[in-house]
Write a structure and sequence with these properties.
Layout lengths: L4 H12 L2 H8 L3 H15 L4 E4 L2 E4 L1 H27 L5 E7 L7 H12 L3 E7 L2 H9 L5 E5 L7 E9 L1 E6 L9 E2 L1 H4 L3 E5 L4 H13 L4 E6 L2 H11 L2 E5 L12 E6 L7 E8 L6 H15 L6
GO cellular component, one term: cytosol
Family: Belongs to the LysR transcriptional regulatory family.
Protein name: LysR family transcriptional regulator
Length: 302
């Protein structure tokens, strides 16, 4: 689809804010990108980029055009996916953003099982905080999100929600590991490793701390759940995350998850969704159904 190449040029320049950097990423010359954009601007009768000494910036017309082409890009991907289906294939790329709690076990397992049936489908997964995930969805950088406590987005359509408890994570030799259920005041007696404040679970914990007046002995903070698990393992710290991100019982690392008493910590929603009225590419729509089924299987009978 060669006629779409110029749209790729515009989109990449808008993201990179530099014709030179966009050209490097596209593996073409900067002069070729600049020439094609100039031709498009002449055809449209509007300047899309304001050329500056250190890069470019979208004009108002450029903002409108880029928003339009990103919407059309999603439709083009859906069309190509449907054509592949007509050829008896199930090709396509599923673009999804997820919270870090889903990156260790739930989403990799879901993708692995899906590809056993649809081996030609590829995945582009962004592991980010909930604010970034919703921004990526709004900018058409991803088609699906699976995030904890997503911020409000007017044209967001939830496909599935799942109530999640916050849990405490520790080694099996930690004193708290002997308890069936822990209170926050129990955790406050030991050094903890916390996710940074942009993470939904940390925000939920901060709200509980403000309500109860508790203060933690914070030994470390990080935006990486992998690092937090490492600190739990090697520094014998206590950390926190949502239940779906807990490692399976009897895992080789020797980590255990303990439910936090509901009197201290309310549940909050893990949300799976897309933009409202967005026609998903076929492979993405089929994967969305796959995720819905797996999330429904986690709902505990009332």
């Amino acid at each position: 689809m060669k006629h779409l190449r110029i749209l790729d040029y515009v989109d990449e320049v808008a993201r990179a804010r530099s014709i030179r950097k966009a050209a490097e990423h596209l593996n073409v010359t900067a002069s070729a990108v600049n020439r094609r954009i100039a031709d498009l601007e002449e055809e449209l009768g509007a300047i899309l980029f304001e050329r500056q000494p250190r890069g470019v910036r979208l004009t108002a017309a450029g903002e409108v055009f880029v928003n339009y082409l990103r919407k059309q890009g999603g439709e083009a991907e859906r069309m190509k996916s449907q054509i592949e289906d007509l050829k008896g294939l199930r090709r396509g790329t599923v673009r999804i953003a997820c919270s870090q709690a889903l990156a260790l076990d739930f989403l990799p397992r879901a993708i692995a099982d899906f590809r056993k049936v649809h081996s030609k489908v590829e995945f582009d997964v962004k592991v980010v905080d909930h604010e970034y995930a919703m921004a990526a969805l709004s900018a058409f950088e991803v088609d699906l999100v699976l995030v904890f406590r997503p911020p409000f987005l007017a044209n967001f359509q939830p496909l599935m929600t799942l109530e999640q408890n916050l849990i405490a994570v520790m080694t099996r030799t930690h004193p708290l590991a002997k308890m069936a259920k822990v209170r926050l005041r129990d955790c406050a007696n030991y050094p903890v490793a916390l996710a940074e404040r942009s993470i939904g679970g940390r925000q939920l914990l901060e709200e509980a701390m403000a309500r109860t007046g508790l203060k933690f002995n914070v030994a470390a903070e990080s935006n990486s759940f992998e690092l937090l698990r490492g600190l739990v393992l090697h520094a014998n710290l206590v950390s926190f995350q949502i239940a779906i991100g807990a490692m399976p019982q009897g895992n080789k690392l020797g980590l255990v998850a303990k439910e936090i008493d509901g009197r201290d910590m309310p549940t909050a929603k893990l949300v799976f969704g897309q933009l409202r009225e967005r026609n998903l590419p076929v492979a993405t729509a089929v994967f969305a159904e796959h995720i819905n089924k797996r999330l429904k299987a986690l709902i505990k009978p009332s």
